[in-house]
Amino acid sequence: xxxxxxxxxxxxxxxxxxxxxxxxxxxxxxxxxxxxxxxxxxxxxxxxxxxxxxxxxxxxxxxxxxxxxxxxxxxxxxxxxxxxxxxxxxxxxxxxxxxxxxxxxxxxxxxxxxxxxxxxxxxxxxxxxxxxxxxxxxxxxxxxxxxxxxxxxxxxxxxxxxxxxxxxxxxxxxxxxxxxxxxxxxxxxxxxxxxxxxxxxxxxxxxxxxxxxxxxxxxxxxxxxxxxxxxxxxxxxxxxxxxxxxxxxxxxxxxxxxxxxxxxxxxxxxxxxxxxxxxxxxxxx
Length: 285
Description:
Number of helices: 11
Radius of gyration: 19 Å
Helix content: 40-55%
Order of helices and strands: HEHEHEEHEEHEHEHEHEEHEHH
Strand order of the largest sheet: 2-1-3-5-6-4
Distance between the termini: 41 Å
Mean pLDDT: 95
Shape: globular
């Protein structure tokens, strides 16, 4: 009976720790309902010591796919059977397809980021110069996505310089036609002046008392600003950028489109983006 039920009804989910904050179930369940797909999306809280066991259990219990969030995006990779090449280079997976008995890993953060850039900011990276603040997981996704889209030059800046160096080293191994360099603190102003886009990949902006990730005076009229922070929907960086007449947006679009890309990988159907955006924003607010 259980086997027959699972063939008729598909299960998807997300693993992480903690997981109570996740907004993914709202987006995906709204999409399943809209398209009349017999499926459900559930959150699964997994402790670090139980990651291998949890992934094995998800496969054995018939899940068709799942997302991976903090802190398992890199740790999960050794338990997968295959990883999409760019995702492997990034060193992080956030979406897994269960194909037969195989687990196939993808990174939809970088594809979601690029789709959001094009949709929200009307920005096409090809031939452009970009300044990235931060060198963590979000920065890696942004950097690799931008380089893959044909960016001409990428500056990577982090207050912990070795982190920026590691990011640049990894990206250069994969993308040799893009000029990717570490930016030192003394060169930040000049690098931003040279850039078409600034991407904040730090968590600065989540707290009301957080300092700005960069000096707002460095922003010029020809630049656009993307802040991966999505709570609040408008960070101080975004508000001040807009006051200067600079087009800017937050990370809700990246969150939305990484989910959209995952949904389309799982279902092979076009995602109802407008509905998913509404479900996401309603719950963010």
